[in-house]
Amino acid sequence: MASLMIVGVSLLLLLLFYRYILFPTFLSPLSKIPNAHFSAPILPLWIWSERRASTGVRTLLAIHQKHGPVIRLAPNEISVNSAEALRTVYIGGFEKYRWYLDAFVNYGTPNMVTMLEHKPHSVQKRMVSNVYSKSYLQNSKDLQMVSDHLIFDRFLPIMEDLVEKGGEMDVLDFTQGVGMDFTAAYLFGWSNGTDFMNDAKYRRHWLGEYSTFKMQLPQKRAGGEVERWCLSMCEAAERFIHSETIKVREDRLETQPVVYSRLAQSLQESSAKSDVPSLKPTIVTAASEMLDHLLAGHETSGITLTYL
Question: Global pTM?
Answer without folding.
Answer: 0.82
